[in-house]
Amino acid sequence: MLKKIFNFNKKVVLITGSTGQVGSKIVKLYLSLGAKVYGLDINKSKFKNKNFFFINIDITDSQKIKTVLNEIFKKEKKIDIIINNAATSVFTKIDERNDNELQKVFDLNLKSVINIIKYYFINYKKYYLKSASIINIASIYGLLSPDFKIYLKGERFSTEIYGATKASIIQITRYFAVLFAKNNIRVNAISPGGILNKNIQTKRFIKNYSNRVPLKRMANVEDLFTAIIYLSSDYSKYSTGQNIIVDGGLSLK
């Protein structure tokens, strides 16, 4: 049974934000399980694998999303799994925030997800597909307000627009799960806690954040893998509209 659960041979997977810290590891996860993976990102990828197909795209452009999805479907005749992972934030103070910054976060974190799901559904019906799994990467800050005491001056913090878009991701996950249930498209979300990144996080912040978490550490990308595999496998056929929280217990305090 385990071999069947972890077997994604002949599956076609689409991952947005495929060159980032989280996306690049999700790409390698699915490749290791035998899937064919299409990665979408505005930043170019140098990763090479015979089953990995990178597409350089700005997914905030709805027409480009439409074109790319049409091309993938024309070639593959299907996409089995979509991981809506791409996201961004801004780090200016609220009294210095401008409309362009708000729009940038909204466009990538929320609008692009809705448009990918929209154009995917159009092709899903066109090609008479029977089932699919959509996984939206949300955030613990779609559920909680950050603890501002753990941030020092100059450190990156979770902003109101980031949290608002991630809360919206959780809501549209529920919405599309109900809307697409009759089409056998399951839509779920994963809400990670803070993910360790020593390249941009200070030692002081990592310590302060970890002290707020019952498991006393930040998340690694690999901590998300079990939830991702479960939600995208055929063994989660009765799970839709769910938001799996992977936060080390942060939301319990």
Class derived from helix and strand content: alpha/beta
Largest sheet, in brief, is:
7 strands, parallel
Low-confidence stretches: none
Strand content: 15-25%
Residue-averaged pLDDT? 95
- The CATH homologous superfamily corresponds to NAD(P)-binding Rossmann-like Domain
Total domain modules = 1
Q: Termini separation (Å)? A: 37 Å
CATH class: Alpha Beta
CATH-defined fold name = Rossmann fold
Shape: globular
Number of strands: 7
What do you see in this structure?
It is globular, with a radius of gyration of 18 Å. It has a single domain (2-246), classed as NAD(P)-binding Rossmann-like Domain (Rossmann fold, 3-Layer(aba) Sandwich). The protein has a seven-stranded parallel beta sheet, sandwiched between helices. The chain has helices spanning 2-5, 21-32, 62-76, 99-126, 160-179, 203-212, 225-232, and strands at 12-16, 36-41, 52-56, 81-84, 132-137, 185-192, 243-246. It is built from seven helices and seven strands; from the N terminus they run H-E-H-E-E-H-E-H-E-H-E-H-H-E. Helix 4 (99-126) links the parallel strand 4 (81-84) and strand 5 (132-137). The protein is an alpha/beta fold and 253 residues long. Helix 4 runs parallel beside helix 5.
